[in-house]
């Protein structure tokens, strides 16, 4: 005789709605707590508060916190943030209703200066160049300071480290946006330069770039931002880069112990280089004891 279905699943549906709020995104609370424990709301207000033109509306830190939540919870585009906005449980965890995708897009667009971008493009074209890196806007500079503070906060919250090794690299990010440019991999997208503080496992600097900008173009800018973001009191500095970082301005800056815009003293560094006949010959002639 078969067991009645009721005995297998002994439950009854209560027609009375629960008073509590439910969410499948409970991790949002942990992310928000980490964000706020690093004092990032105040840092955002100090560096990006000028972007808020009206008293009503979201604060800069609320929008950035929402973006962080979206990325860490699997959002792949701005429209995915609407799922957070529709989740009453997330609203209760955060203390505010997450902004809409439109509000986030409007905030991000305030960091772009189309006039400055077109002027940089014209200057590059006049010089016969296809790739260029425009000067960062005030908003992007503010975001850079917020990123630096987050890295210092991570280092303070975790095990304190006395050294800093900067790992720098550019990564292609494919995009279907009309403004995206062709990369050397044959796909359209962007190629941001990112610098990571290895010992703290934290990003300390980033430079947004078009996809057609080669990684070897002006790598010193991101490198300097990374070292400027480090806290005081470190006892050792180091740098690692691939062959795209084999660029004379960068190498001379690393070797100069009286460098401008960076820590004074020695920076140990290792940068790979493409093998050439001259380099091969120099390697052969260098004794093992060197």
Explained architecture:
The chain has 290 residues and is α/β, with parallel strands linked by helices. The protein has 2 domains: 88 residues, no CATH class; 122 residues, no CATH class. Helix content is 40%, strand content 12%. It is built from 12 helices and 8 strands. It has a 5-stranded mixed beta sheet. A 3-stranded antiparallel beta sheet has the order 2-4-3, with no helix packed on it. Helix 11 links the parallel strand 7 and strand 8. Helix 2 crosses helix 4, helix 3 packs across helix 4 and helix 3 packs antiparallel against helix 9. It is globular, with a radius of gyration of 24 Å. 27% of the residues are buried. The mean pLDDT is 90.
